Amino acid sequence: MLLRAATAADAGLLLTWASDPTTRAAGFHPEPIEPETHRRWLAQRLASASGRLLIGMDGEEPVGEARLDRTEEGRVEVGIAVAPAARGRGVGRILLAAALEMARADRVLDPRTFVARIRSDNTISMALFAGAGFHRGASTECVGVPCYVYELDV
């Protein structure tokens, strides 16, 4: 899978994926997203020196996104979202592996530990990250929602 950096031109695509009901239900902010709010969020993401927003490509087809954020020295938070039309094809596993590989080579992110925060009812994401070698750690709350913290040492 090829990963490319997201651009402002991806705003509509990313908003469509983020607005999908399954995606909304799996996230920490299930409320609908206003287009202007999304455009501001994307502009901030693209301007971040310590974060990466990547689009996974299967040939010419965009199939998902990966978010990587350096939260503190050596720790990089990872988020994955698979395009609704690409679900059920193993895209999440391939996208996650490609994003981790890219992050390991990124001198700014410089990961020592990858972290994923997953809603406690999101069994699909838990299986994805566990299958990639992440270990479930603390049970906590993320934005007021019960979640688990999964970690993978580099």
Secondary structure layout plus pairing:
Blueprint (H helix, E strand, L loop, with lengths): L1 E4 L5 H9 L1 H6 L8 H13 L3 E8 L2 E12 L2 E8 L8 H14 L8 E7 L3 H9 L3 E8 L2 E9 L1
Parallel strand pairs: 4-5
Antiparallel strand pairs: 1-2, 2-3, 3-4, 5-7, 6-7
In short:
The protein is an alpha+beta fold. The chain contains five helices and seven strands. The protein has a single domain (2-112), classed as Aminopeptidase.
Characterization of the model:
The protein has five helices and seven strands; from the N terminus they run βαααβββαβαββ. The protein has 154 residues and is of the alpha+beta class. It has one domain (2-112): Gcn5-related N-acetyltransferase (GNAT) (Aminopeptidase). Strands 1-2-3-4-5-7-6 form a seven-stranded mixed β-sheet, sandwiched between helices. β3 (61-72) and β4 (75-82) form a beta hairpin. The model has no long low-confidence stretch (mean pLDDT 96).
Keywords:
154 residues, alpha+beta, Aminopeptidase, 7-stranded mixed beta sheet, 5 helices, 33% helix
Q: What's the structural domain tally?
A: 1
Low-confidence stretches: none
The largest beta-sheet arranges its strands as 1-2-3-4-5-7-6
- Report the oligomer: single chain
Average pLDDT number: 96
CATH architecture: 3-Layer(aba) Sandwich
CATH homolog superfamily? Gcn5-related N-acetyltransferase (GNAT)
Distance between the termini: 21 Å
Alpha carbon gyration radius: 15 Å
Shape: globular
Q: Enter the CATH topology name.
A: Aminopeptidase
Number of helices: 5
**Relative strand content:** 35-45%
**Could you give the count of β-strands?**
7
